[in-house]
Amino acid sequence: MTKPLLNPPRWGGLLISVLHSPSPMGWAGVGLLFLFLFSCGTENVKPKQKANPSQFKEQLVKVNKYEMEKESDEINQYIARHNWTMEKTGTGLRYLFLKQGTGDSARSGDNVKVNYKISLFDGTECYSSDKDGAYEFKVEGDAIESGLHEAIQLMCVGDKAKFILPSYMAHGLHGDDASIPPLSTIVVDLELLEIR
Description:
- By secondary structure, the chain is an alpha+beta fold.
- Helices cover 35% and strands 21% of the residues.
- Helix 1 crosses helix 2.
- The longest helix has 29 residues.
- It is elongated.
- The relative contact order is 0.14.
């Protein structure tokens, strides 16, 4: 008579019955079962690879570059559809002067007052001084779109100009949680009224 196992593991009735069997065939079966389990379990298991931060960073740079080029192409197509002749700065800001003023140029640290209209590529008007009144901000001092800080420093008092800000110079990945969706290129019409 065989002894019962103490706290037998739940390996299934076949394994338990083999362990209870005193026959040589039963022990041979157990040996074959373990051989099968261990031989199958080690060949297909690959060691985990550690994440390589530099490779991850390279991939992010590639994706970011691709997205910037794609957005730049879309901006060029938009400009072509409107038959505008726009200049482009090194940061990707596009601009077109509609009226030349004769006043002082805006500089970093100046407080400026502007009329404005901000629209999306589909023509949706997001914000306008016609509704909200003229806007004042400190050049390179207030938390507004980085593209506007660059744009205003291209202007003199009395200038009217149209700017196209790529999303990375506007509200980027998140939008503004109000009227401007994530990853939106925006069109900004600006008139520099005064410098204080």
